[in-house]
């Protein structure tokens, strides 16, 4: 779902005229500024709905006339604040990658730890980070590049396209301009022109009519059709952060088959992982003698044979097995050139 306020992580604005879009950029620019700070002095602070820092920020925002929705939106998305000179700035989702790059860490596992642990890991890494970080404080949030690849080669994300086509049908417009601000200033944006297509519009209206009659009027939730990760992320955003002290939920018995399937798949996954580890060990055992004979070389040829052995150097340069490229399945056999 798209947000209607600029500070929201899901913000999406639709403009019928290019001048309106440029005025929006000018407004964002007036409410933004740059700061250059040493990376090792940056700190991240977790924020939850009942935390002390959230209460203090709400009081401060009320005094300064700022929208308290900024705090709520941050809690529902990143759950993180950037602390600079005792000032707290809510962090946008699109800033996370830059923060991780600055801290010099990565990995999908980071997304699965609790926010206080996540912040502590980042802070420990930032303490030893070198150089300076250029911060963009925009609409009370820090932001950075995000998703510009979705607009490359004159393309347009399909969800934006259909949203705009709906507006065109309602407003009876033959052409609309859609823009994406992907960078940190008013010069970094894409503009795409959408021409009205009555055939697509007819299909869109039919789908909307079906949705209204079969789902909205009958109060029936539509099934999820997106990829599992997107489905779970959508549910998380809708429900908000998990609460350890929340009452236990009595699940409907219709979930029995899904639970049984999940447990079965979990067991299969564990079996495959165990088998993969076993095969990995056997592969290492099989190539040990070859590694020893190759020494520091990265290639070899069987005597009086048609097979050449090669591998790419990896890991510790001082490890002969790594240099021979035979570690972790990097050993490859191929016919030798005549």
What's the quick description here?
With 338 residues, the protein is of the alpha+beta class.
Helix content: 40-55%
Number of helices: 10
Tell me the Rg in angstroms: 27 Å
Low-confidence stretches: 139-146, 313-338
Q: Note the beta-strand portion.
A: 15-25%
Strand order of the largest sheet: 1-5-6
Shape: extended
Oligomer kind: single chain
| Overall average residue pLDDT | 75
> Termini, distance in Å?
62 Å
Number of β-strand runs: 11
Order of helices and strands: HEEHHEEHHEEHEEHHHEEHE
Structural class of the helices, strands and pairings?
alpha+beta
User: What about the largest sheet?
Assistant: 3 strands, antiparallel
Describe what you observe in this structure.
This protein is α+β, with helices and mostly antiparallel strands and 338 residues long. Helix content is 42%, strand content 16%. The strands form 4 sheets. It has a 3-stranded antiparallel beta sheet with strand order 1-5-6. A 3-stranded antiparallel beta sheet has the order 2-3-4. It has a 3-stranded antiparallel beta sheet with strand order 9-10-11, with no helix packed on it. Helix 4 crosses helix 5 and helix 6 crosses helix 7. It is extended. The protein starts with 17 loop residues before the first helix and ends with a strand.
List the helices and strands and how they pair.
Blueprint: H1 18-30, E1 32-38, E2 43-46, H2 52-64, H3 69-76, E3 80-84, E4 87-90, H4 96-103, H5 115-126, E5 132-138, E6 141-142, H6 158-171, E7 175-181, E8 189-195, H7 198-216, H8 228-239, H9 256-294, E9 299-301, E10 307-310, H10 320-323, E11 332-335
Antiparallel strand pairs: 1-5, 2-3, 3-4, 5-6, 7-8, 9-10, 10-11
């Amino acid at each position: 779902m798209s947000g209607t306020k600029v500070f929201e992580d899901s913000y999406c604005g639709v403009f019928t005229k290019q001048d309106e879009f440029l005025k929006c950029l000018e407004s964002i620019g007036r409410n933004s500024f740059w700061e250059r700070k040493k990376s090792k002095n940056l700190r991240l602070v977790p924020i939850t709905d009942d935390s002390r820092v959230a209460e203090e920020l709400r009081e401060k925002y009320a005094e300064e006339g700022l929208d308290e929705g900024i705090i709520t939106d941050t809690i529902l998305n990143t759950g993180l604040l950037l602390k600079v000179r005792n000032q707290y700035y809510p962090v946008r989702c699109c800033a996370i990658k830059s923060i991780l790059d600055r801290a010099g860490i990565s990995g999908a596992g980071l997304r699965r730890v609790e926010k206080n642990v996540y912040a502590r890991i980042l802070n420990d890494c930032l303490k030893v980070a070198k150089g300076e970080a250029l911060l963009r404080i925009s609409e009370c949030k820090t932001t950075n590049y995000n998703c510009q690849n979705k607009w490359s080669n004159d393309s347009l994300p399909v969800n934006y396209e259909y949203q705009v086509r709906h507006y065109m049908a309602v407003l009876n417009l033959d052409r609309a301009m859609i823009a994406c601000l992907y960078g940190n200033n008013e010069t970094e944006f894409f503009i795409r022109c959408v021409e009205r297509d009555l055939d697509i519009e007819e299909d869109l209206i039919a789908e909307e009519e079906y949705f209204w009659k079969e789902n909205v009027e009958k109060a029936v939730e539509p099934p999820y059709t997106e990829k599992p990760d997107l489905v779970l992320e959508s549910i998380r955003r809708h429900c908000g952060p998990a609460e350890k002290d929340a009452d236990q939920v009595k699940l409907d018995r219709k979930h029995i088959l899904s639970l049984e399937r999940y447990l079965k798949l979990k067991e299969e996954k564990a079996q495959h992982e165990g088998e993969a580890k076993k095969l990995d060990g056997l592969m290492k055992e099989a190539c040990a003698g070859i590694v020893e004979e190759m020494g520091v070389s990265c290639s070899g040829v069987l005597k009086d044979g048609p097979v050449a052995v090669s591998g790419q150097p990896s890991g510790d340069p001082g490890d002969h097995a790594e240099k021979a490229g035979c570690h972790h399945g990097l050993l490859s056999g191929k016919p030798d050139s005549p």
